[in-house]
Amino acid sequence: MDNPFSYTSIVSGDSFCNREKEQNDLLKYINNSQNVLLYSHRRLGKTSLIYRVFKKLDEEKTGIGKIYIDLYGTLTEKDFISAMFGSFGQIESRVEKLLNLAKNIFRSARFSFSVDPATNLPTITPVFDSGDKSLLLEEVMQVVADYSKKRKIVVVFDEFQEISNYAVDEFEKRLRKVIQKHKDVCYIFAGSQRHILTQMFNSSSRAFYKLAETYPLEKIATSHYISWVKKLFAEKKVDIDKELIERAVQVCENHPMYIQKFFFHLWDEEELDMELISKIETQLIDRHENEFLNLWDSLTLNQKKTLKLIIQNAGKDIFYADAIQGAGLKSGSQISKALDSLTKKDIISKNDRYDIQDVMFKKWIQRL
């Protein structure tokens, strides 16, 4: 039997663990054309969840059109428009129709043809000349509105925080102006940089203020992991102990990607015991050694001290005088500045306490 655990690509099928509530919630938003702000820390399974929901829409034969646009790496409004138009092959399989759409919208652009490797559907992407100023955002977005007159549409903008970096004035305002007019369209604004996304959607001075229902994606409960892991191991006639699963989940702090990786390495082992859990934990940290060293070396001294302070105090009460002195820092302002930088670098996050997002990086720091 092939190893069912997966951690380097989109997780699907039996490799996908639970998220039943999240799936049902997103289906409800989509069916009722309500916008959603879906955010999580990196590698918590956000994209896998989206594709899982897309599959359910197909299985339930809803007829809802699905568009997924990955905005990661886009730098300009041109990039956004190209990515947007390039996704239309997901709802329009007729190449002739796509080409006519392209010619009507991008009169001064050239086009590249390709096949989307994920969907095997045709893709036509406009190629702008360097001097082209015809950035026709409204016309491109109108295509979505036109298709939604025939059937409901769900549009997912993954890594949506990227648009905050576009050096184009008023882009967010113009995009909102278009989106808020669309009926029978559910927009899912997904991303991994929570601090940017919350500013975009919760600040009254920003264009996307209150345009979507906030839906933070949390870690999966241990009980769900237990039943899921036991079921997968049972398929190869192995009864894995509940206590061993709980310990592995605890080591990974319920982080989906690391749990997938952990049990991937456990899968082919003959003797499943607690000693093996410690061995795999050490291996995972060791294999990321160079990556963690490079990250650590890129930080300032105060940022390093602040990370150690977070670990020593479990992310709480870090502004107390004793804690500050114990970490070798001089003032709360030094910590505040370091926390701000570490948050922007996506190294730490804060809910009820500060935490280092990468579980194994945190364990590596504890070794120092």
Describe the structure using short key phrases.
about 375 residues, alpha/beta, Rossmann fold, Arc Repressor Mutant, subunit A, 3 domains, 5-stranded parallel beta sheet
What would CATH call the architecture of the largest domain? 3-Layer(aba) Sandwich
Helix content: 40-55%
Shape descriptor reads globular
Low-confidence stretches: none
CATH homology superfamily of the largest domain: P-loop containing nucleotide triphosphate hydrolases
Oligomer: single chain
Any idea of the CATH class of the largest domain?
A: Alpha Beta
* End-to-end separation: 40 Å
Describe this protein's structure.
The chain has 3 domains: 19-216, Rossmann fold, CATH 3.40.50; 225-287, no CATH class; 297-367, Arc Repressor Mutant, subunit A (Orthogonal Bundle). 32% of the residues are buried. The protein is α/β, with parallel strands linked by helices. It has a 5-stranded parallel sheet, sandwiched between helices. Strands 3-4 form a two-stranded antiparallel sheet. It has a two-stranded antiparallel ribbon with strand order 8-9. Helix content is 47%, strand content 12%.
